[in-house]
Amino acid sequence: MIGIIDGYPEPDTKSPLLEFDVQGGGVVATALVACARLGLSTRYIGKVGTDFWSRASLRTLSREGIDVRHVLRAPGSPGHVSLVLADRTSGARTLFYRRPPAYAVRPEEMDRAALTAGRLLHVDGIDAAAALQAIRWAREAGMKVTMDGERIVEGIEAVWPLVDLLVCNPRFVGLITGRATVEEGLRELARGGPSRVAVTLAEDGALGLEEGRWVRVPGFRVPVVDTNGAGDVFHGACALGELRAWPLEWTLAFASAVAAMKCRTLGGRRGIPRLPEVIAFLDAHGRRDIARALE
User: Fold this and answer.
1) Residue 83: how many CA atoms within 13 Å on its side-chain side?
2) Taking all residues of the chain, what is their mean pLDDT, rounded to a whole number?
3) What contacts 274, CB < 8 A, 6 or more positions away?
4) Is 57 part of a structural domain of the chain?
5) Do the Cβ atoms of 154 and 177 come closer than 8 Å?
6) Pick from 104, 163, 172: which is nearest to 132 by CA?
7) Percent of residues in the chain assigned helix, strand, coil, to nearest 5
8) Beta bridge partners of 167
9) How many structural domains are present in the chain?
10) Is 180 a member of any domain?
11) Cα separation, 87 vs 102, whole angstroms
């Protein structure tokens, strides 16, 4: 559930909702929607409940062409829902969420064949033990692995060093490494295992490190309506770059463009563009090199 407000109200007051919508969400799920709209074949493996919201979430993924046949169920559990309030002026948002404990995925629940049927695995690491097992299987199957470094959970320190591309937010970098600056933190992460690391910087684009070389990508300027889901969309777009074996600068620039385009529309998913739209956007914003590679 997403609402647009005109500034955050004081406590014990009432404030009108300027816009309201209900869309699917979720860190990995929204990344997969981006992948699907960019032309990739996708499969979601996670856990949902059995209530109205759970059924609705699977329907929204199925409509995008995402394979949900291997989704796990938590019988009797309510759905994972979020309430997002976005400020009309800045596009900044605050998210309130409910993730029932029954949603935790255990390693023994996972289907190895289903997990290793693709070319790339994308994880968020929230269920660290399950993510660790999935990454090990993916590695043995020769798959690439990307990770959304968003939240610090118990066991996450064993997960992120095993991925090929780690893209995280500044808070994750600081908490994991204890370094004072993003640059110092990325250097520490790069020494920890991933061959490529990057941090998203909202409207300022992204900063990455690949084989000891810094990669700086400016943000694309667009009229911002809602930033909700922009990071998830960024990760989905990164998957395409990884599968094409692009240099990190191309991957981050492409992902920045896709995420910026999403921010022009309310909600985390409705504004996710399809590949022809992205090609036109890149062409119009000085990245004909990437656009040509996608044609």
Assistant:
1) 4
2) 93
3) 37, 38, 39
4) no
5) no
6) 163
7) 40, 20, 40
8) 148, 198
9) 1
10) yes
11) 32
Q: What is the DSSP string of 73-104?
A: E-TTPPP-EEEEEEETTT--EEEEEE--GGGP
Residues 282, 38: Cα–Cα separation, whole Å: 14
Spatial separation of the C-alpha atoms in residues 273 and 48, rounded to whole Å: 26
* 101 lies in some domain: no
Give the separation between CA 77 and CA 256, rounded to whole angstroms: 36
Asked whether residue 97 carries a pLDDT value surpassing 90, the answer given is no
Range of the domain at 250: 27-44+111-294
Task: Tell whether 88 is covered by a domain.
Answer: no
- In angstroms, rounded to a whole number, what is the distance separating the alpha carbons of residues 29 and 34? 9
CA 200/CA 275 separation, integer angstroms: 22
**Could you give the CA distance from residue 205 to residue 221 in angstroms, rounded to a whole number?**
10
**pLDDT per residue over 25-81, tens digit each?**
889 999 999 999 999 999 999 999 888 888 999 999 999 999 999 999 988 888 888
CA-wise closest residue to 224 among 191, 180, 163, 271: 271
Kindly report the CATH number assigned to the domain that includes residue 263.
3.40.1190.20
* 27 SS3 class: helix
Contacts of 180 (CB under 8 A, 6+ apart): none
User: Is residue 115 within 8 Å of 146, Cβ to Cβ?
Assistant: no
Contact assessment for residue 178 and residue 187, using Cβ atoms and an 8 Å cutoff: no
Are 84 and 93 contacting, i.e. CB atoms less than 8 angstroms apart?
Answer: yes
Distance CA 29, CA 108 (A): 21
Whether the predicted model's global pTM rises above the 0.90 cut: yes
